Amino acid sequence: IGGQLSPWPTYTSGQTILHNRKPCSYDYRKRAGSWQKQPLGITKPRYLEQLENYLRKELLLLDLSTDSTQELRLQPYREIFEFFIEDFKTYKPLLSSIKNAYEVMLAHQREKIRALEPLKAKLITVNEDCNERILAMRAEERYEISMLKREKMNLLKLIDKKNEEKISLQSEVSKLRKNLAEEYLRYLSERDARKILIADLNELRYQREDMSLAQSPGIWGEDPVKLTLALKMTRQDLTRTQMELNTMKANFGDVVPRRDFEMQEKTNKDLQEQLDSLRSDYEEVCKEHEILLQLHMTTLKERDRFHSELQEIQRTSTPRPDWSKCEDVVAGGPDRWQMLAEGKNSDQLVDVLLEEIGEGLLREKDFFPGLGYGEAIPPFLRFDGIVENKKPTKKDVVNLLKDVWKQRLLEEQKEKFPDFFFSFLEHRFGPGEAMAWAYTIFENIKLFRSNEVMSQFYAVLMGKRSESVYIKQKETVAQLLKEMTNADSQNEGLITMENLSTVLKSTFPFKKEEKIQELMEAGGWHPNSSSADLLNYRSLFIEDEEGQSMPFVQKLWEQYMDEKDEYLEELKQELGLELDDEVTLPKVREALMNIDPSLDKRTLNGYLSWAFQLPMTELPEEGEEKEEGIVVQLKIALQRLQMTDIRRMGSREQEPAS
């Protein structure tokens, strides 16, 4: 193969070298002119014929029955291409790079095919499984369809049979009614005929007697013995008839006609129904009377309290301020002031005005002075120097406080809340900015006491309230929303007022009726409302951008605080001590069990632990306390219980829980 190369076509010189020609460039006009001058008899070069013969021979020797047929077919072409590269030295680099590029691509495609082979097998297996499942499901469906068709036919036959029975029974009833009417008419005819016959017989008898008397004028001349015997027999008949008459009167003296009996029975039934209705109305009136009595007593107490407050206000009050003067001072003008002042008393308006003034002053401050490292300074505020005022909006502060609560609920609450708060700020803003944000948030929550989120956070942060109060309140609100959602069977966000009342009574079984009424009014109920009126219950739990809740949730919080005060006042009355007196742990335990017998042991120990500031593990068991062991001032104990989540677990009349 490596011999002399013959030029082909014959008019092309094998030694021609193209000078200064770019790759793929070609002068078609010149080439076309020269081509037209060449003869048509052209033979292939010997080298080309040798390559084609070699390729044909190698292809004939291949075994094309195996799976790697395409790979084997490439091998002769690869060898021909290598011979070609070796003989053309000038183009060897270019042709080698072309060959290598194709070899790399073929290797890549080969690897890709090898990687896809398992997927192909898996796909075939999955396809077979799916086909089998489809066939099985179709067979099962065909069986079920046949069974249902069979059952349908049986039911249709049963329906036809029942219809035939119904038709036959109806015809039989019609026949019996017809026979009954005929018998009734026959008996009526017989009764009338019998009465007519009896009347005719009596008439004939009377006529016979008259005729006998008229035909026997000498009757007084008959035998006295015969007349005496007839008189005796007549008297016996009279006596027997009189006895039968007396017997009939004795047996049937109390019997009344059936028509009168049925009429009296119907009248008695109507009167009985009226009596039952009146009795139920009477019971309802009694219940309403008791409720009205309770409302009357509550109203009297409220009247006395309001009267005392009125007298106190009249004694200490000053002229009512003209709050409309604030419209021109507060930012936002009259409209914003009307929004802020809506539904607030004078004391609350003073707080609002102070917040507005304080907010303006707080915005003007660029820095806060550090409070130092004193013991009275909260740990998150201990710093010397000045710190920057970050000047966040109320919305930003509320969102940050909500994030703090979310993170707190996710953790195990091992560290104290102030330390956790500062750690959260360090994690959120970095150690360098945490102190500035601590001072900024502290000044904001101290100022905006009317904001629910800020005021509750401030109370927990300063140790004036346990964080369990906030957590329990959120759990109560979430549970209430869940119960309302369960009552919403259509999942439309709507429930009736009756459903709202039922959910409130089931969630708060120890609330009084007037408290439930207050919650319903806060939720949108009014006296003219019907029990079927719909309520969008989800709107009751919405918060605005500054964290303010709807009136329903606010009323729930107010009732919780009032009930806590009533509970602690009842505990104070049960103890029978003054606020300055000291109280022992056994007396507090006994008083709590008396006013709330349903308290379980764990909850009771939790209350005692808060009141006496002792770990629950160090509390003495019931019966092991010494009378003068652990004591605390009653005022301090009540203040500590006021800080934690304390609520009634059952009515006072219930038996103690085990």
Automatic annotation (TrEMBL):
It comes from the Eukaryota. Residues 145-179, 261-288 form a coiled coil. InterPro entries: TSNAXIP1_N. The keyword Electron transport does not apply. Residues 52-161 form the Translin-associated factor X-interacting protein 1 N-terminal domain. Keywords: Coiled coil. GO terms for cellular component: cytoplasm. This is Translin associated factor X interacting protein 1.
